[in-house]
Design goal:
By secondary structure, the protein is an alpha+beta fold. 27% of the residues lie in helices and 38% in strands.
């Protein structure tokens, strides 16, 4: 009986420790929850906030995706001299994500399309670990396509709900199935 109870306790400790260790580990298709400021508290700034530009970096430091997200909440203070705000978003880890340490940066932009710099406001940063995904998970996870078009044009971002390889495979399967159906539907003419 003593062995059984100690085994159960060790098993429970293992499960709890595995859950704690993997709290910031993700794979393709997982949502990474972002709260800016990280405390989730409202922050006072002088300019009216418009959106937060989140940039996702892979372990090599290359930009994988960039998105402008309207702030979740903003309100002018009673005296009208500053703004209270915060933002929350879920960013999905893309398909075929490179294992390693990824990073998300967020910068607050004003309604005048300029980055807000304030002593009370720092750039948002979150790092997280990504593990090797399996093939099916990678194919069904979103696909991000980003082109940096220089300082004047910025970045062009495209988000597909699944990887293009899956779309091509499904299209090919549909065409082959259609051809087989048409071929089977033809009856040979016998004389």
């Amino acid at each position: 009986m003593k062995r059984t109870s100690s085994f159960i306790i060790m098993l429970l400790l293992f499960i709890v420790s595995a859950t704690i260790v993997s709290a910031e580990t993700y794979t393709s298709g997982d949502n990474v929850h972002v709260r800016y400021p990280a405390s989730g508290m409202l922050t006072d700034i002088l300019e009216e906030p418009k959106f937060v530009r989140y940039t996702v970096f892979n372990p090599e430091g290359l930009v994988v995706y960039e998105v402008d997200h309207d702030v979740t909440f903003k309100q002018q203070t009673a005296l009208g001299t500053s703004w209270k705000w915060y933002d929350e978003i879920d960013i999905i880890v893309p398909g075929f994500a490179q294992p390693g340490s990824w990073k998300i940066e967020g910068r607050l932009w004003s309604t005048f399309f300029s980055i807000i710099t304030s002593p009370s406001l720092s750039v948002y940063e979150k790092t997280f670990e990504v593990t090797q995904p399996d093939l099916w998970t990678s194919l069904t996870a979103p696909f991000y396509y980003t082109i940096d078009m220089g300082p004047a044009a910025g970045r062009f971002n495209l988000l597909l709900p699944v990887h293009p390889y899956l779309i091509v495979a499904l299209a090919m399967a549909f065409i082959v199935g259609l051809l087989i159906t048409l071929r089977a539907g033809r009856t040979p003419v016998r004389s």
